[in-house]
Each structure stands twice: as C-alpha cells, then as structure tokens.
Write the structure tokens for this entry.
Amino acid sequence: AQRVAQSAGSRLETGTRWVVDPVHSQVDFHVRHLVGRVRGTFTNWYALLVTQGHDWSGGAVKVTVQSASLNTGNRYRDADLRSDHFFDVERFPQITFQSTGITASDSTLELGGILTMKGASRPVVLRGRYGGVMTDRDGRERIAFEATTTVDRRDFGITWNEVVGGVPAIGNDVEITIAVEAVRVN
C-alpha cells in the first residue's frame, strides 16, 4: 500500500510528533577525492518528524544540522571544510532540510524537500528504506528510515577545488544520507 503526502511548515505543528534519537541516528556525506573518497558525518543535529499516527500521509520531516559539527576523522581536513573554501560555518552555521512531500510504503520512503546549505536552497529528493514502527523495551514507540540523495556541491556555492595531474582533486557530486530512528513524543 502506497501513501502520498504533501507537507508544509504547518504540518510540523499537528499530528504525531517523533524526535530523533541521536544515539541511533546519523547524517553522513561522502565525496570523491582524487581516485578515492572522503567520508564524513555531522555530530550535532536535530530532526522532527510528524505523521498521522503510523501513517506518513500528511506528514513532514525537518532536519537542522550544525555545520561546524562535521567530522571526517582528520582535524586538519575538518578545519579546511569549516573554512570559507567549503561550508563557511561562521557565516552559515546551519544546514536544513524541510520536506515538501512524502511517499511511503511498507518498506520504501521518498522525501521531496528543500535543502538549504551555505545560503542556497535547492529542491532534492531523498530515497531509501522505511524501517517501520516498533515499541522499545521502555514502552516507547520508535519509527525509522534511511534515505540518500546526491547533490552537486557547486549548486550550494561550494566551488573551491584544485587540479592535481590535470584532474580536479575533489568531486562535485556529494552523497548525503540521513538515517533516523525517532521516539514518539505525543
């Protein structure tokens, strides 16, 4: 059974609210570097999901990421990524995703929405797996999904690059994955 929902900011104010469990959720990215790839994650972020009970119809998702919380496992690279060459975290401290439409089935999920990064807002579609709803050992309901999109970093004003051996060192396509496990709060 497939359900389609159009959402707006007001949809985040009504319905069943779910708040992200940061211990069991993550926002990751990866991008090509020369012939390999660099992976990273954001460690400080928040997400709110609103559904109609367990039904995504009329639902909404909003994710707010603190851009300075990026972590690639290398403090020198992280400092460079926080600089105005890339995320410019002093001027643009947050990255946001606000859903505009949700399609969900028993195991798949598609989130259309607006991604805002470094002052630029662009429509994106995240596609992935809907994990369903389950009650944890403390009696709290949990909902989960994992979805991925690929964006061109240049669309968000992240254009800095260098050429090594005649090839741009950094790829333009960045894959972003949001994996959320959230706890029902009402």
